[in-house]
């Protein structure tokens, strides 16, 4: 062969955060793409269980005992028995970028049959600008082989920094329980070769299965809420983080991209179990969505933390009327920020 | 999702003829066009006779028809060049109007199959749009997909779609400066998606490959914004960009949708980007004023039809953009004139605000 290959991009600037309650066998398939990077494993459930990490990976692992030790009483904001606990990994990371992936997600193939390096695509998405202020009909203009179309104002062609890269899933799509019940056999087989910026002022359902973000730009907004054990709701953790994140990104002039890369989602969770978890969420989201769609942040909220605390207040005031859960959640949002700033003092402004 | 039955009787295909010999264009589209009624409008500036092959159900309109229909208003509105197609919209009596530039032919998808761009536009227009919340699996009504987890149920009925914007393989719709900087840039990426452009998000609508529900937004498809040195190459015009933004504002206000993505057409090589750049790049400069205006324009509660909306937009253009450049003041006047003509010639749009 010729000269040595370039080092993996952002090798020392990115952590891969993986929540798990079962095992990490899936990492074997990802080894060619993930091995150069540092892993943060967040072990949910029984802390006395040993989760084996495949040899050759550089990692740190936290179970519930570690979380309680590190955060003390503030550990109350980290969910138990729900993959929402992954956000603890974001908090303890010291890197600029995070990639998070579920332990039932594998390497997918593109239409030519080639294995998709999802991490590489997320990095490309995060390192190139977003265009939230005006829609480009040829999608991401910074991708190779494309550009801004006729009529796109030149003053908007620099774009804004990208805070979030939201990837998708082939095979088992991310449907809610009712849809899963109606269409148990539907599989996502359509490879859509696109990355695009979600426009400013538009909300979306953010899935945490295959997600990258810039911790410096948006990290404190990536709180995955109170889910799982002892909570009235589940499977809305990433949704909640996504709505908060989008409102804050829109306010701070940051971009959110969605589309490539695809991963292969192998496990269809039980729709009846999901329905029980989502049940309250299905009703509550009818109140939650208008809340986020009309949320405005003050000019004085110039950092992510300030934005987030302002949102927490609004959650308590407005959504607190829907259910007392939201009062608890607002408290947890504030606890999260306190904990974040304690563990990340240099970054707190 | 539900099967869409396309009623051919509800469709007109409008083609603006900017070149005299339409033979190869029509022959290439014949398998797709032959089921439908065609309206061909000859650019009034074109001196030569049009060459059109037989075998189509069509009506042809030329300068004399335009003059006759426009009557005393014939000097108020220019149907020169790409704007000649708007006369076709005016003459159409159908709900769906699909329009292609005369330098486009059917494209092939990633399996090598010919794309029926007309059927795809109809499918886009006949299925709901989802402008109020973004679905990460794109159009949820397409076969093999749906709304994702976290998509509010109250928004899953969607709203009516007013406009379907298609794309282009080979020569994409770039502006002249871009094509000059990247002369070899050709669009080879087939993106298998249709998506709704969210409410309150503006976009550049290209007239090259487009479908319209004229009952919903017809009056907003208007030949109002013509550059001083507008030419016969797409790099030398922005009339469609203006018209498209009017339609988007109307749709946002009336709670209708605009879709973008499939279908693709194959756009043939034409023109010289450097020549166009030398001649005219006012359009590029004017976008800096046009875009912020359309992003901020808001219509009143009383505007409940497309005509009402256009009238309010025109008034706002006159007031806010008129002082910036005379081309805007002219555009505002033309919009008002157009609404009058539309009312006179076609039945008014029947859609009330949803």
Automatic annotation (TrEMBL), chain A:
EC number(s) on file: 5.4.99.30
Sugar-modified residues: 150
Subcellular location: Golgi apparatus
GO cellular component: cytosol; Golgi apparatus; plant-type cell wall
Any single Pfam family the record assigns to this protein: RGP
Annotated site, Required for activity, chain positions: 150, 157
Species this chain originates from: Dorcoceras hygrometricum
Protein name: UDP-arabinopyranose mutase
InterPro entries attached to this UniProt entry: RGP, RGP_fam
Family: Belongs to the RGP family.
Record's keyword terms, sorted: Cell wall biogenesis/degradation, Glycoprotein, Golgi apparatus
Summary of the function given for this chain in its UniProt record: Probable UDP-L-arabinose mutase involved in the biosynthesis of cell wall non-cellulosic polysaccharides.
GO biological-process terms attached to the record: cell wall organization; plant-type cell wall organization or biogenesis; UDP-L-arabinose metabolic process
Keyword Cell wall biogenesis/degradation among record annotations: yes
Catalytically driven reaction(s): UDP-beta-L-arabinofuranose = UDP-beta-L-arabinopyranose
Enzyme class, UniProt record, top EC level: isomerase
Molecular function in Gene Ontology: UDP-arabinopyranose mutase activity
UniProtKB/TrEMBL annotation, chain B:
A GO MF term: UDP-arabinopyranose mutase activity
UniProt keyword annotation of Nucleus present: no
Gene Ontology, cellular component aspect: cytosol; Golgi apparatus; plasmodesma
Location in the cell: Golgi apparatus
One Gene Ontology biological process: cell wall organization
Keyword annotations of the record: Cell wall biogenesis/degradation, Golgi apparatus
Pfam families: RGP
Stated family: Belongs to the RGP family.
Name this polypeptide is given: UDP-arabinopyranose mutase 5
Organism of origin: Dorcoceras hygrometricum
